[in-house]
Amino acid sequence: MTIALIPGSFDPFHNGHLEVVERATLQFDSVVVAALRNPQKSEALFDLDQRREMMAESMAHLPTVSIVAVSTLLVEVAKEVNASAIVKGLRAVSDFESELQMAQMNRQLSGVETMFIPSSSSHSFIASRLLREVARYGGDVSAFVPPPVDRALRKKFEEGTL
Ligand code: PNS
Questions:
Q1: Three-state DSSP class for 2?
Q2: Is 151 a catalytic residue?
Q3: Nearest CA owner, ligand 1 atom 4
Q4: Is-contact 149 13, C-beta < 8 A?
Q5: Residue nearest to atom 17 of ligand 1 (CA)
Q6: Which segments constitute the Cytidyltransferase-like domain (predicted)?
Q7: Superfamily, domain 3-124
Q8: pTM of the model
Q9: Which spans in the chain are helix H?
Q10: 9, 85, 17: which is closest to 47 by C-alpha?
Q11: Are 106 and 86 in contact (CB under 8 A)?
């Protein structure tokens, strides 16, 4: 049984992430998507539980996918779920440098390999950071995120969290 582990901050989960998960389901028997903290990034918009809920709704159509949201090391999750490989999406060369470094560190720590799925060009400009910014100022991001995430962003910024 092959198990892919797809980690990320997913703050919030968007259509580029969804594409990577959907394509991974075609290559692995099951896929675990893990929302984790990225200590390199500033304060999160959604807490881990909120992210898990949105992701579960957004991927309800994918029966081989499960979701975890934990504040721990990725390699601990890889061990826990018995991952065959870590899978990440690559949008552009600019993603590669930090992804390569994390892949090498994770392999040194655990022996687990990282595999990359290149995102389609229609998704390559989508970034959670930009979605947060556009949504914060009232822009429409519904073309870039699954409906549950769109609803959560609207609610968040209706509350006046500028
Ligand atoms: O979506 P991101 O922010 O590129 O994902 C980065 C993430 C969350 C996968 C990375 O920061 C991570 O693995 N965080 C968990 C803590 C950890 O294991 N850090 C060591 C990374 S080599």
A1: coil
A2: no
A3: 8
A4: yes
A5: 73
A6: 5-133
A7: HUPs (3.40.50.620)
A8: 0.96
A9: 15-25, 48-58, 74-81, 93-110, 128-136, 147-158
A10: 9
A11: yes
